[in-house]
Batch of 2 targets.
Target 1
Amino acid sequence: MSSESSRIWFITGCSSGFGRELAEQVLLTGDRLIATVRKADALDDLRSVYAETLRVVTLDVTDAAQVQEVVAAAAGEWGRLDVVVNNAGYGLLGAVEECSDAQIQRCLDTNLMGPLHVMRAVLPILRAQKSGHLINMSAAATLSNYAGFGIYGGAKAALESISEAVRAEVAPLGIKVTLVVPGPFRTDFISRSLVKADGKITDYEKTCGQFAGFLERINGKQPGDPTKAAAAIVKMIHDGKAPLRLPLGKYVTEKIRKRNANSERELTEWEAIAVATDY
Ligand SMILES: NC(=O)c1ccc[n+]([C@@H]2O[C@H](COP(=O)([O-])OP(=O)(O)OC[C@H]3O[C@@H](n4cnc5c(N)ncnc54)[C@H](OP(=O)(O)O)[C@@H]3O)[C@@H](O)[C@H]2O)c1
């Protein structure tokens, strides 16, 4: 692919996990990439190989002013942005009551406000181009949440709802929006990146404690392969597809089926009462 026809990607949180895998695969296909990291040297190995097609910038997505600056510079780099991936994020583990206000704020700022800052900064650019694809990383917790992931799952659920609205708003303007919904994948998500609640309340041991135990047991053994996840995202883009949701991993496909069946069962049980409340 010539540099004129290659796509230009902007991906947040490229130091590890999905972001790092995506970065590598995007560059391998010959596309160009503006990768954001928090530690400036995080992608030095890739930078030496892809001097022409990779730009690395430091960005903390919670800093709205910095997002504006970085996005403006990114759009100026090669004159447009084709694929924007809101990947940066982390989990906060603990009962809603156990998390401190500061922890809750930081989690919402990163997982919800961060992607929102990026979306709102890139939308004027994509609207002017009349093209572009926004990809927001969601999570299995949005399908039905776990005890112990309330704040994190809540942030991702709000991101899902906003993304659905944005998708409807910008579809007539030539812009696509997709939510990527991964199950457990072998990244740094439940090791280095996971933040544990400041508080500890023994009443939550049987619920949140059990979920924490599950995460501990699957750490390093998650069924999802981030290399394959990145390949699926790249393929979706190269095929010109834009589903509302791209689920990744068998865990999540089974969870969707179960959630749908439970919703249907509950709807059937309550339907008569629901419809009887109309005038
Ligand atoms: N892996 C899973 O099982 C899983 C499942 C569902 C959803 N997800 C989602 O997938 C996305 C990527 O996570 P991952 O699994 O690849 O985990 P990861 O390996 O821990 O990567 C997370 C990335 O986000 C960056 N980041 C965190 N806070 C940031 C901030 N305030 N500003 C900028 N960058 C920030 C990290 O940067 P540093 O290196 O500087 O910390 C890192 O690059 C997240 O949105 C996560 O919620 C993951």
Target 2
Amino acid sequence: MQTTSSNTNSNTNTLCKLFAINFPIIQAGMVWAAGGKLAAACSNAGILGLIGAGSMSPALLREHILKAKSLTSGNFGVNIPLLYQGAKEQIQVALSCGVKIFFTSAGSPKNYTPYLKDKGATVVHVTSTPELAIKCQEAGVDAVVAEGFEAGGHNGRDEITTMVLIPQVVQAVKIPVIAAGGVVNGAGIAAAFALGAQAVQMGTAFVATMESSAHPNFKNLLLQSKADSTMLALKKLVPVRLFKNCFYQQVKELEERGASAEELQQLLGKGRAKLGMFEGDMVHGELEIGQGCALLKDTPAIAELVARLKQEYQDAVAALPSF
Ligand SMILES: Cc1cc2nc3c(=O)[nH]c(=O)nc-3n(C[C@H](O)[C@H](O)[C@H](O)COP(=O)(O)O)c2cc1C
């Protein structure tokens, strides 16, 4: 395993070299929050930006890719959740626009990895268990994101926390591991590296930035959140970590009554996540966010956030007690 200091040195960090970035931080692809503007700002700040294709039609994805290209000459990628029907077409659009970095999630790594590798792309798949990490490696991915229970968005069923998941995935595979879930500051990055990750993927912290396309109401709400502001819900459909607003309370009541998947799907309906995260309805919308929201204090610009993360990381490492 690499040492902590070599993990952050872009000359030696495997993932910095793979993605051609300066700092081993990946801005997560996120529905309704991660468009071309955010991805380009991240690339300009020396980290890897990802466009979250999950909430976009193929045509809109093309627009966001072209926008990002007009705003940066740096590398950026796309996140394609494989559970949505449009995934195949999104992949075609991204390839036709010259995107070379694909983070796939919520599906089998076998589905598209060989195809994307044939096209010369770099492929990373998201896993929430060591067993799936091994399958990702067998499918030929370049790296895995190991995402723990603290994470915002869709989540693993088995509630494996980042602290416990990362060392197991690092042991299980030979490819580089990117830690995700609960990392919102430099101390979190240091902790992830100590566990054996070579980079971090951060979502929640990037929702609350100036360049994210999340609605200002959502960003402001996050600044008031507490340690218990989120909960994993909708396990009968696709498990997702939600901010505890009125919509979440309705989900909870149904779940406590033992509602079926069909009833939950009926309550969820269509467009809930857009209504909340993008259109700013904090009462009725679905608000996907990680436990780490309790640690957010402001909504910085990306350049400021990345500089801060670097400083916090160095301070955290310097402050480690001797053993
Ligand atoms: C608002 C939001 C939307 C997300 N959407 C996606 C998505 O479309 N695809 C995906 O693979 N992960 C998605 N995620 C998960 C992130 O990619 C990332 O792994 C996670 O946020 C990391 O944990 P953190 O939130 O504690 O930083 C989302 C997370 C958030 C907070």
